[in-house]
Design a protein that fits this description.
Largest sheet: 2 strands, antiparallel
Mean pLDDT: 82
Radius of gyration: 18 Å
Strand order of the largest sheet: 1-2
Number of helices: 4
Order of helices and strands: HHHEEH
Helix content: 55-70%
Structural class: alpha+beta
Oligomer: single chain
Shape: extended
Strand content: 15-25%
Distance between the termini: 48 Å
């Protein structure tokens, strides 16, 4: 028997993220706010060239910039 999340076409990590979000949203106000803060991610990345790390950037802001450049370049 296949797992329901596999049958739905989700990866296990995505399934866990959805389940965690559902649990956080079901909490009362104060515990929910604390849980939502724990659920936020702050990812950074750096491009490596010649064995040296470049400037470290926030993933969310870099993604937004790339999406803006991509959308303006296609018009």
């Amino acid at each position: 028997m296949a797992f329901a999340w596999k049958a739905a076409g989700l990866t296990y990590n995505r399934y866990l993220a959805v389940a965690a979000r559902v649990v956080r949203r079901s909490l009362k106000e104060e515990p929910r706010l604390k849980a939502e803060k724990r659920g936020e991610m702050d990812l950074k990345f750096a491009k490596w060239e010649g064995g040296k790390a470049g400037d470290s950037k926030q993933l969310a802001s870099a993604n937004a910039e790339a999406m803006a450049e991509h959308s303006s370049g296609q018009q």
